[in-house]
Fold this protein.
Amino acid sequence: MTDDEHETTADGTGEEPPVSDGGTASDGGAIVDDDGLPAGGVPDTPHEDDHGLPPTHSIRRWFVTTNHKDIGLLYTVTALFFLIFGGLLALLMRLELWAPGANVMSAASYNQAVSAHGLVMVFWFLSPLAFGFANYVVPLQIGAKDLAFPRLNALSYWFYLFSGILMGISFFQGSTFNGGWTMYAPLNTPVYTPEIGGTTTVLALILFVASATVGSVNFLTTMHRMRAEGMTLRRMPIFTWSILLTVWMMLFAFAALLAALMLLSSDRLIGTGYFAESSPGGAMLWAHLFWFFGHPEVYIVFFPALGAMAEIFQTFCGRRIVGRKWFIGAMLLVAIQSFVVWMHHMFLTSINLEIKTLFMATTIGISLPFDLMVFSLIYTMLKGKIRFKTPFLFGFGALVLFILGGITGVFLGAVVLDYTLRGTYWVVAHFHYVMVGGVTGLVGGLYYWFPKMTGRMYDETLGKVHFAMYFVGFNLLYFPMFLAWETPRRVFEYAPALTGWHQLSTVGAFLLGSSFLVMFYNLFKSAFVGEEVDGQPWDFASTAEWTVPSPPPLENFPGVPTYASGRLEFDDGGSAQTDGGAVHGKAAALPGSEVTGTEHEGGESHASIWPFVLGVGAFLVLLGLSGLQRGYFPEGTMGGMYIGTAVVGGVVAFGSLVAMTRERFHGPEGPFGESWPFTTVENTKLGLWIFLASDVILFGAFIGAYVFSRVAYGWTDWHHLIPEAHVVLPGLINTYLLLTSSFAVVIAMEFAERENRLGVVGSLVATVGLGIGFLVNKGIEWQHLFHIHTEAFPAGWDPGTNIASTTFYVTTGLHALHVIVGLVIAGYMILRAWNGAYMGDDEPIEYFGLYWHFVDIVWLFLFPLFYIV
Amino acid sequence: MSRAKLYTVIYVVLFVLATVQVVVEQAGYLEESYWMAFWAIMVLSAVKAVVVAGWYQHLRWEPRSVTTLMLLGLLGAVALTVAASYSIL
Ligand code: HEM
Ligand SMILES: [Cu+2]
């Protein structure tokens, strides 16, 4: 392990090549440094290398930026806003729990507060805060100029922000979702939660998942393809490792959640019956889908905190983490295991005893690697020389809290104990210790990276005051919950004997809440008037973000970063050398301009308004759709407004997509040295494949829902639910049509290679024609089935008739939506091909083909499952 | 043109396999021995999927890691489906 990043420390602090090596390079650094200050009163003279971005004090900057550091700041600030939102809801609840029974809120309001608090904290605060850091720090740590798809990164942010706004709006549409953050069935169906706001919450979550999925694809492509030379996976800093594993888990876990949410939206908007009480296994179906996502999710929110803690421990203990390799291995193991423990959340459901036992075993298994990580952190402290700065205090506090939370989780993992503890405050206390333990680590991260992000130091005394209030408040808040564990979860009734504990808890809650006032004051003030810092305020910080100025210039590095020698260096860039001195001056003014050579022509714009506009469009579409209830919009003007909103949103979204494809924009391409294991797979292609992998889970979960429901009903009795008129032929014809259209795409590629314009146009037209034929055929089939009149189905066979019709229409409907998207893309490509695009360049057609063949493959399974067997 | 020829042969094979699936059903095998016929039909689908992925999507010519990536997704979906279905048996 001699080649570890630790060596960078010694050298980084000793020589600091990029920052202090005098002369030319530092000039460049200094200039951009000023220009890049996010908060100071800095010169707004347009710099030659501002990437087409307005200065940071201009509001416009924040709407058009695609730079990862800007977006990191946006995420961080927005997440903190949602912390306040979720926190106020929590304080309301704690007030209510001052004494048993209704005191300040009605039962209905309390349900809203409980549900929204959980959703906001888990989705809109915790993960996005981590992603603020990930955005800011990961490219710096791996030596990249930006993420692979900067505009998609902006899009992730805007989707995130607008999903949160949608969530807020849901409060004003009757009621926000009030069935608990786990949204169990059948409470999540319109029978029990009929309010429009409930639907809006679900749709807001869908938008959030879209944001997370786009983000995962982006980070995965970046981290696999765009590492600097020598930055092998083995050498990658631990925080970056934790993010890499997090986004892998996100890619798969969020796809399952997306499936669950889409099925639920279908129930709520169209009136299908996945989760209705009439559906066999409907409640279980939700639980499986939700927890298949939900358990990985707890690590998705916890891993970044763990990564931040590890970095903080290294820096403030002044040594590399003990057993670094093992630490990473343990994280990797947990990431995999996290997908096979989900049923420990279902011990009290009707799942059979064998599977309960199995999942108890896997749950015990997953706690083992955690022990290793905990010991490694402890040993790092013992063997190092600790400096008790605020970030370390929070990191250390997080460790203590996590140990307590983990131990109490093991209790819950035991089936027998869970019979007693489930649904009580024991669970509430457990997951707050782990999850808010994670928050503690991230707060440490916030103090740790604050000087990097702002160029100024926070006030250390106030930081320590914050920690003291936070840690005391936290334990005062949550520890009594273990003692008052007999309190039932999610209601405000409890045995009067427990009142004392709850009052202690409420006092703790207000202490914890007010500690954040100290933090906000401290950070806000310091961002403007704090002591200015150079690139490396901590000493011993070993990762690459500390080798560049604070805040770093737009293009991050003064040259091509490389770790080839075992430590971080910056190449001037081969081609620039020949031009000699004169150019060198320019290189200093344009640090990093050589990084990608030809790609980055000076002055090219990295500003784009379209991600924001697309966010607005998506927001309006979903807001409009929320009015749809079981197939009907509200009567009168209200309904008109909902429909109008959706239509306008659709136009805006479509327009911005077109605009985005027409805009000239280059992200960094790579590879820059290390791209294992995707060295030969170009960025866009890899991004597409990664996206398709998540789509496999999405469709897999839809098909899984069908299989599960059918098993629950009785597999071979299923045909009782299906009318005679549902025959094989339309399905077979559609199979032929899709296969042929796939063939046409392959042929289009051949023509493109041979530069035959009419051939390309012709084959693409054939593709689209066959696709339209597919849809028309399906439409005729559906119309027929909707309107049959038989003894068994006197009122037709529509999506809401029974679980068989529900699964049939929704699963093949999702597929049809994929077909429609493909046709739109293909239509656009026909226009371009007509104008002579793709001649000798079949890549775009190949990429479209990847998607189209995937849609074809899905149908190859839907056809037998829904038409034959 | 040999590649175009290969693609055409593959297309014909896919077409035939789809037809065979329906033939299995029409010939009444599902009634005769349901699970045999069921798995036969599903395996045919799997074969078609592998062919489309391997040749039309060029997975054969991509690094192994891309295939692994897709198999991971598939593994997740299958694990979820099988374990969930088993849990209520
Ligand atoms: C040390 C390993 C852990 C074990 C053995 C464990 C075990 C469990 C078990 C068995 C449950 C189900 C309890 C019940 O509902 O009856 C549970 C609930 C929960 N755990 Fe953990 N856990 C661990 C770590 C974590 C971590 C790291 C987090 C988050 C960062 C977390 C967050 C949660 C949450 C949010 C719930 C409640 C879910 C709900 O609302 O029903 N756990 N834990
Ligand atoms: Cu769990």
Remarks:
- Chain B touches chain A through 52 residues (CB under 8 Å).
- Chain B has one domain: 3-88.
